[in-house]
Amino acid sequence: MFSLPQGATSGKNSEGTCDEYPIHLEHIKRKDWECLLGLLFNSNSQVLGQASIPDFTLDEWESVLNLSTKWEMAAVRECAIEKINQFDNPAKKIQLARNYRVPRFFLPCLVQLVARSDPIIPQELSELGIECALKLVSIRERIYNGNNNYATFRPEKAPLDASTPGSTVWNNTVAVLHAIFTDHDEHYK
Questions:
Q1: CA atoms in the 13 A half-sphere facing the CB of 44
Q2: How far is CA 169 from CA 18, 100, 111, 127, 154, in A?
Q3: Is 72 in the same domain as 135?
Q4: Domain of 65?
Q5: 52-80 per-position pLDDT tens digit
């Protein structure tokens, strides 16, 4: 015969029996839970079939990545990683790489931040962390091939074409990143 744990009740006021008595998931945000359920219930009984995956924002996919990592849901985690990879937000993806052990985001996103002409903005600084952001700024300054006229400022950093893995620019950038980010080896192996 089945028995309830000590202190549990089988009455109609038990946890999870109605909206007034929900099941409490410790340390789980409601938003994260709703996003995970939204993905699972939109996948039409296939294991995350591509035809029915919701069009989530980056933050919503982070919610799915959070719970799928925590609960070791490999297929859901892989789906979230693939969807996050489609977003063009390299600083956020570096943050996610660290928080959720997604090494495939780390190096390409660092290269993208080094190669672009736009400076690192405050939101990215927050996502990268001060140490990582300062290392990136240092690398970006080294790459500048302008004249040595220190009396004037350059209008902006010229972007590098580091979009092709294996190209000379990509390889040179990666070599510098490996030298500077030696304390982050676990992220780009």
A1: 6
A2: 60, 29, 10, 26, 21
A3: no
A4: 27-87
A5: 788 899 999 999 999 999 999 999 999 99
